[in-house]
Specification:
Blueprint lengths: L4 H6 L14 E5 L2 E4 L4 E4 L2 H4 L8 H11 L12 H12 L5 E5 L2 H20 L5 E5 L8 H6 L3 H4 L9 E4 L15 E6 L2 E2 L5 E2 L2 H13 L3 E5 L23 E4 L10 E5 L1 H4 L15 H14 L4 H22 L5 E5 L2 E5 L4 H10 L2 E2 L1 E2 L4 E4 L7 H18 L3
Parallel strand pairs: 3-15, 5-6, 5-7, 7-10, 10-11
Antiparallel strand pairs: 1-2, 2-3, 4-12, 8-9, 11-12, 13-14, 14-17, 16-17
Helix pairs in contact: 3-10, 4-10, 11-13
Bound molecules: pyridoxal-5'-phosphate.
């Protein structure tokens, strides 16, 4: 049946999977976006940790335009030189030896889950399939990745879940004693839980986890979909922990906003896959890998990461100063340019008030305001954010 024009005004043709803010963004450049009315907003969400070089970064744009005029798509039945180039860059910058490309974070974690099972079953037999993950984690919305996610609200309504996941409390030393069962083959964790509330993993706990994995030949898999690509002050967050993972999943910032995902694996884990084990029509698409190459080439330029580290320290110090003036703030936590303000039950209100003052922020649950500036931000922009937060904390929060 055809909908009348008045119907189409009332009912969106989109299945309502998102609660959207009352804002329509039509343009972006650097740290800013503009709405339909031409109003300018300071975007400290970076498209949820995705536009890490700001909106439409010039070097990525130029390479994408060149590629747009050359080749858009090529199936993985043929060689794609830029896939090789991006894989080599990722390998050179990390613990990894080989890379598989896909299109999103959930797909990257799906690949990691399949790789872990396949590696362990070849090595040890079919009883080794269990992957340990942690409470409050977030690993994606596909059936396997929501089964890996340690949050009931994400899993609700989708039973039966994919079997073979067990959840332990995050940052709990004691709980590590029960990490290994007869079936365990791998551990999957975020080094800073992003969606779960900006909760950094404790370094001693992570070290112990790494040791247990090494002693029991479990794959240590780090989900760096939110923490990777410079977000926490190093190219990858694991580089700030004294560990050597076996597998790392990436997406979000890898393509500066162009959809791409990847897993990076060491030689041992990569043996889990051979031709026919896994695949994706669009995985490693020429446009996507072009965006990835241009992005990582910017980030590995001398001083880029040093500046990000300095900006992260500046932001966290300014937020800590702000905490002194506002008794409702319980904590400031995070690493680099992934920072959280813990303000119980008020995070949504703070985000709304900031939007009214033309600054975009995110929540991470009801108690945490999540701040994700582009890595190309400046001290002046951070000062602007702090001034807006100061006025919100002083004058506008209601009970
Ligand atoms: C840590 C982590 N893992 C996985 C995902 C899922 O990524 P995507 O939405 O690209 O599927 C996200 C997305 O927020 C994430 O933050």
């Amino acid at each position: 049946m055809l909908a009348s024009s008045s119907d189409s005004l009332k009912v969106s043709a989109l299945i309502p999977t998102y609660n959207r803010f009352p804002l329509t963004i039509v343009k972006g450049k650097g740290s800013f976006v503009w709405d339909e009315a031409g109003e300018k907003y300071l975007d400290f969400t970076s498209g949820i940790a995705t536009c890490n070089l700001g909106h439409i970064p010039e070097p990525v744009k130029m390479k994408l335009v060149e590629q747009l005029l050359t080749l858009w798509h090529c199936s993985n039945l043929y060689h794609i030189p830029k896939q090789e180039k991006l894989a080599s860059l990722l390998v050179k910058q990390s613990f990894g030896d080989q890379v598989f490309f896909c299109n999103s974070g959930a797909e990257a974690n799906e690949a990691a889950i399949k790789l872990a099972r396949s590696y362990a079953q070849k090595e040890w037999g079919s009883e080794k399939y269990e992957i340990v993950t942690f409470t409050q984690s977030f690993h994606g919305r596909t059936l396997a990745t929501l089964s890996a996610t340690g949050q009931e609200k994400i899993q609700q309504g989708f039973a039966p879940l994919v079997p073979g996941f067990r959840y332990l409390p995050f940052n709990d030393m004691e709980a590590l004693n029960s990490l290994v069962s007869d079936n365990t083959c791998a551990v999957l964790l975020e080094l800073i839980q992003g969606e779960g509330g900006v909760i950094p993993a404790n370094p001693e706990w992570v070290k112990k986890l790494d040791q247990i994995c090494k002693e029991n030949d479990l794959l240590l898999m780090v989900d760096e979909i939110q923490t990777g690509m410079g977000r926490t002050g190093s190219l990858f967050a694991y580089q700030q922990y004294d560990i050597e993972p076996d597998v790392m999943s990436l997406a979000k910032g890898l393509g500066s906003g162009f959809p791409i995902g990847a897993i990076v694996a060491n030689e041992k884990a990569a043996k889990g896959f051979q031709p026919g084990s896994h695949g994706s029509t669009f995985g490693g698409n020429p446009l996507a890998v072009t965006a990835g190459i241009a992005t990582i080439e910017q980030m590995i330029q001398s001083d880029f990461m040093n500046t990000v580290k300095e900006l992260g320290t500046y932001l966290s110090e300014k937020l800590k100063e702000l905490k002194q003036t506002c008794s409702q703030i319980e904590d400031i936590r995070g690493k680099g340019l992934l920072q959280g303000i813990v303000i119980p039950k008020k995070a949504g209100q703070v985000v709304e008030k900031a939007r009214e003052q033309k600054v975009l922020l995110l929540t991470a649950g009801p108690d945490v305001v999540r701040i994700l500036p582009p890595l190309t931000t400046s001290q002046e922009e951070i000062d602007d954010l702090i001034a807006v937060l100061e006025s919100i904390f002083k004058y506008s929060l209601t009970d």
